Sequence to fold (386 residues):
Amino acid sequence: MLFPYLADELNDLEVAGLRRHRRVLESPQGARIVVEGREYLSFCSNDYLGLASHPALIEAAQSAVARYGVGAGASHLVNGHSVLHHELEVALAAFTGLPSALLFSTGYMANLGIVTALAGRDDEVFADKLNHASLNDAVLLSRAKFTRYPHLDLVVLEKRLAASRSKRKMVVTDAVFSMDGDIAPVPELLALCECHDALLVLDDAHGFGVLGRGGRGVLEHFGIASERTVYMATLGKAAGVFGAFVAGSVELTDYLVQRARSYIYTTATPPLLSAALAASLKLIDEEEWRRERLRELIAALRQSLKLQRWRLMDSATPIQPVIIGSNQETLTVSEVLRDHGIWVPAIRPPTVPKGEARLRISLSAAHTIEDVAHLAAALNELESAA
Ligand SMILES: *Cc1c(COP(=O)(O)O)cnc(C)c1O
Fold:
């Protein structure tokens, strides 16, 4: 074999219970999914509002595809910037109440674009230890000094901000932490940023559509409006489609158009996605019952889980992690649940810290109270049997 270390490393991963395997989904995303010929009750997706296969989104995409075709054909700065992208940006700015919005192809690319455009060699970026991998990769690519602080530890963050001699400072954080479900203390972070003249970049991948009035996200949740924040959210989770956007001042988005390489050097997304997203935005805004349902499901799950050894994390969002600890036990529990027709993903290092392998239960407005009761009963029984 030409590269024997590949097989060796794959084997090491297998032995450590860390080798990932993809399973083939044969149905649309929803509370019930079909995987490799069998139906499961699913607690895996980030489709928190149950919009990923909503008829209004499908219809919007279908009429857009009939009118504008499938591919964007070019990058935004060449001639791929479609009227549908433009209209969605206008709608996103209006929805968030911020002056301007800029679409990116994915959240990963938005984070790369924001951080590399706004921070460089002479600058310093302060990042929560549990931030999403895309934010960490973004900082590395920016060549800025990379200073991480323990999860939500504002005392340490303040010390490090005060000690910094870098030209520009930027604090980057998940607004809702993707594997823990807890919400960052944004008002306190903003106060620190004001005190130390730092920018605050908020990645609201899991808050957009879920938190705040009308699902407007973490800024609305805390009632914050500040030019010091760079707001980023993704559109493939609660919004049910694909993509991401940045919102803020007109100068911010225009600067990113000039400087964000992950914006400039890539083909624009198919315009049909923007049409589906415009339909999604309307439902996010109008159908408060989806967020109400989520709140009921979260409360029901937290009430009915009676765990002794495993630990349900403290979370008020649809991300409800159960910490099991060992990689192997987590995998086994996930597999036994699957045998029972329930799909909950096992999340292991390096996605989460060592020794904190967990089931990441994610709830959706597409679930019923009975679905959640069924999951809780299965987990309670599995834990007491283990
Ligand atoms: C999912 C996620 C991203 C990446 O977004 P994509 O659109 O899937 O690339 C970025 N940040 C956080 C916190 C996420 O959970």
